[in-house]
Every structure is written in structure tokens, then in C-alpha cells.
Amino acid sequence: MLGKLMKYDLKAAFRSFAPLYLALLGMSVIIGLFGRFNAEGNSVLAFIAIVYGVTMIICWVIPIVILTLRFKRNLLGDEGYLSFSLPVSTLEHIVAKVLSALVITVVCALVVVLSFLIIGLISADFEQLRNAMQQIMSAFSQIFDANLLPQIFKAVVFSILTSVELISQIYLALAIGHLVKDHETLAAVGAFIGINVILSLVMNVIHLPNMLESAGLYYVYSIALTALFTSLTWLILDRNLNLG
Amino acid sequence: MSWTFKSDQPIYIQIVERIEIRIVKGEYPPGSKLPSVRELALEAGVNPNTVQRAYADLEQNGFVRTERTSGKYVTDDAEMLISLRKSLSSKYIEELFVRMTELGYSEKEVIEAVKAAKGEN
Amino acid sequence: MNVLECRNLTKNYGSKTALDSVNITLESGRITGLLGPNGSGKTTLIKLACRLLVPTQGDISICGNQPGVETKKIVSYLPDRNYLPEWMNCRDLIYLYEDFYEDFDTQRAVDMIRSLNIDHKIPMKKMSKGTKEKLQLILTMSRRAKLYLLDEPIAGVDPAARDYILHTILSNYDEDASILISTHLIADVESVLDEAIFLKEGKVILQDSVDSIREQSGKSLDEHFREVFRCWES
């Protein structure tokens, strides 16, 4: 059942994302061509830089917005009447939502990388491309020498885990908001801020060491928080669901 | 589409009467198969249990018999059918008398009024 | 076995009592009307049976189980609102029901959708209100469930749609299944009901067979209901 729930979550999410992805990849092609035929000029570079920036923001923000809306609509809105009458436990619903968020975050990260690759491949001419490939190859060997790859890997894993943690925190905030009739959204925003305040207080007490040196600790911390948020969301919705 | 029912009587009794009328009129001829409970329920727009109860009532009075596998049949006992016709007619006459009495007619006046009404036509 | 059983079932929202020590049993093979004015607790009772709410006190059980995953497999619920995802079309919805409900009879749903001439490809959001309601009912009644909970299935529909809805309900339920129909439009459902439950301010004030109510009161269920719930008395 978990798999089926995720199938529908992902289907719904990718339906919303598909235009964004296509636009993003389409933009990458245009930027790539732009870069190739108007190679020189700072204004062009500046333009590209701005588009990159916007792309990055879109790619990290939109999934969060869409996942938030999906959670609210699918579980706490009118669709909740369907969702919660399916022969599935509340826990499965919440876990499916968190795992779907994980999948979507990973896919978004891959799309960003893909868009960079497209820009790079198109904007470079053949000669440049070969040079670039060589550079990449040598960079790889350097990376392996310098153990940089594991560092990059750690950073990527960390950023994905933090995204999922953030999303599960949003889910918890929405569940808390659901308890407050007539002011759900306001209460959810308040709850989100409240959780952040509590977390920063806790962080002041326990000082975590440098991230890159003890990535494992950060993973555990992030996963533990995700599990905590998920369990609390489950407890709230399982006992206190009251669809309007 | 569905049948209309009077409000002051259980629906199954009204269904019994409809079926009785159909039997007397020959819409459901002697010995013929009656519609299934579900069919009649859908036609009447009522609950199948209500039709079931109406059939049970008809069966108890001997107007309908059940073949174990194939369903409900109208009786082919001619005497039964005659008595059904009689009982319906006396019921209607009774109703007529009750209503006319309410209007202050005596029995005699009722009979005269009926004759007069038929004579006019 | 009783399909639905409530014992001293109570639900409070904060300080407000929506259901107050309700005792109800529904036998299998019967169509029961859950009747009462708006705000009398009809929807609350149905939501408790679907585990969309958790009781404050008392018990509710369906075929011997407390509401949960097991009961959701055998309960087919029609909420009193548009609850289907707006972006889905008929085909998506059929796949969805097939995916989650083992008792879903796809062929039956397909046949009924075909007889309504709904285009398989248009999404819910482009359908008229009436079509959406019929589609929801078709999906609900295409399950071979043990208990159907229909919350206000005929509120705000025209007489032709009402006939369609009642006909769909009558022609699709199995004889050993039970149906609970909540409504405040008693005259419209009266002829399909076996039993009636009158709810008033969260309390059950009457549960009896419709025939015996008619016999005892000498009135239709609707007239009896109006008498019991006369506004100027309460």
C-alpha cells in the first residue's frame, strides 16, 4: 500500500513539476545556444548567471511549495475524505508523503545537474568540449587523489536529507495548524516558526562539530529529526483528524 | 418512473394491492412468472426487502406460489382468482361507503347516487 | 452479525457535543435512513464509522472490528462533498479505486460510466456538478462492500438526478450488504428505506422499521419526521 500511495503522490507531484522541468531544460538549451553563438561579452555572462541563480532557487523552492500544497490538499482538504477512507493506516499516509518528498528532492537535484550539463555541452564547441572533457577527467583523478569526491557526496546527501527534514517539519506544522479550526494556515506558520525556535535553542545546548568532519553525525541528526517530525505528525492526525 | 405511495399505509401493503390489481386485470396471467424481487423493486423505486415482504404476504394468502429454484408464480387456481377479484371489489365498495357516509349519505342514497351517476353516462 | 454497532457513542468538539451516547445497531441486508435536520450529528456519526474522527467516548464497531484499515476494506463511503482529485479523469479514478479496493467491480463502474456518456478523458474539474456527483456515486456503489455509508447523496439535486441516484443505489447493492443513507429530505428516500433512525441534537430519538412507524403513527415517515422536528417546539 505504501508503494501505491507513493505512486499517486509522485504522479500528482510530477504532473505539477513536468512543466517546470521542461521549461528548465528548454531554458538550458537556449542558454547553451546563446553561449555558443555569442561567446564573448560580460552582459551575456551576467544574464546567464542570473538565470542560473533563478533556476537554482526555483528548483529548491517550487518542490517544497508543491509538496506543501499536496499534503494540505490530499490529506487535510476535501481530498482527505478519499485518502483517509482508503484501507491504509495514517502512518502509511505520512511515511508515503515523506518518502515521496525524498524521491522528488533527489529528482530535482538530478534535473539541476542535467540542466548544467546541457548548458555546458551545447555552449562549448567541439574543441572546447574535448578540452573540457579532459579537464573533467583530470579533475576526477585529482578528486580521487584528494578524496574530494566523498566530500562532494557528503554535501549532496546532507543537502537532500536537510530538504526532507525541512519538508517533514512543514508537514508537522500543517498538522499542528489543522488542530486550530478557522485559522489553519496562520497556526501552521506559527507552528513552523515555533519548531525552529525550539530547534535553535536545542542546538545552542548541544554544539555539533564541523559538518564535513563528522558528516555521519549530521546525517543521524537530520534523520532523527525527520523521524521525530513524522511521528508527531502521525500522532496528531491519527487521533485528532477533523476534516472541515 | 417509480410508483407513488400513499402516506398513511405501509408501503408493502400498497405494493400487495398493485400486484393484486395486475393479477386480476390479467397483466400477470394465472400461472405466469412474476418479476423478480429486484426487478419489481427497481420498477417501484423501493427497497427489495419491501417487495419481498409484499410477495410473502401474497403467498400467505395463496395468490402466489414459490417454485424453489425459478421464482414466484401467480396461482392458477381459478377459485382463488375469483375470490381475489371479489375481495378487491368489496374493498373499493367499502371505501366508497365510508366516504359517502362522511358526506352524510345513507346507504340507500349511496346506491341511488351510483345508479344516477351511471345513468348520466 | 451486526454490520454496524454503536454503544454509548459520544463525540465532543471542544465543549460542543455533536453526538451524545448514541446506541445503534444495523443488521445486514437493510437500508437505513439516518434522518435529522442539519447539525443533528448525522455526518459526525458517519465520519466516526469511517475513522475520519475518533470517538470521545463509547464504542463503534463494523462487523466486529473497530474502525481502521480492516473496516475500510469493507466500507464504501460517499462523503457529502467533492472528494475526488480534480485533475483525474474517469480512467484515473477507476485505476485508483482498483488499486486500493479489492472489492471494486471495474466492469460495473465502466458500464455505468458508459451509460452516462461521460468522456473518459476529461478531468473532474471540467465536469458539471451533477456529473461529478453521479460519478462519485458510481464509484462508491461499484464496490461490493458490506456497508455503504452515503452522506446526503440527494441533497441539492433535481428530481431526475434523484431518481437516477436512488435507482443506482437500489440496483447495485448486494442483498447481504447494508446501506446507511443520511438525509434531511425524507420524502425522497422514504420508499427505499427499511428502517429509520431519527437524530436530534446528537441523540437518537427513534430507531424503528419504516413500516411500523407508518402503521403506528398512521403517517408517512416524512410527516412523522416533520412532527417530531417541528421548529417551534425545539
Plain-language structure description:
The complex is a heterotrimer of chains A (244), B (121) and C (234). Chain A is mainly α and 244 residues long. Chain A is built from eight helices and no strands. In chain A, helix 6 (148-179) crosses helix 7. Chain A starts with a helix and ends with a helix. The mean pLDDT of chain A is 83. Chain B folds into two domains: 11-76, Orthogonal Bundle (Arc Repressor Mutant, subunit A); 85-120, no CATH class. Chain B has helices at residues 11-25, 37-44, 48-60, 78-102, 107-120; strands at 64-67, 71-74. In chain B, strands 1-2 form a two-stranded antiparallel ribbon. The radius of gyration of chain B is 17 Å and the shape is elongated. Chain C has a single domain (4-81, 148-233), classed as 3-Layer(aba) Sandwich (Rossmann fold). Chain C contains nine helices and nine strands. A six-stranded mixed β-sheet of chain C has the order 5-6-7-3-8-9, with helices on both faces. In chain C, strands 2-1-4 form a three-stranded antiparallel β-sheet, covered by helices on one side. By secondary structure, chain C is an alpha/beta fold. Chain C has helices at 42-49, 69-72, 90-100, 106-115, 129-141, 159-172, 186-189, 210-217, 221-228; strands spanning 4-13, 16-26, 31-35, 57-62, 75-78, 147-151, 178-183, 195-200, 203-209. The model of chain C has no long low-confidence stretch (mean pLDDT 91). Chains in contact: A-C, B-C. The interface between A and C is medium-sized, with 24 and 25 residues.
Distance between the termini of chain B: 33 Å
CATH superfamily of chain C: P-loop containing nucleotide triphosphate hydrolases
How large a portion of the residues of chain B is in β-strands, by DSSP E? 5-15%
List the quaternary state of the chains.
Answer: heterotrimer
Classification by helices and strands of chain C = alpha/beta
Helix content of chain B: 55-70%
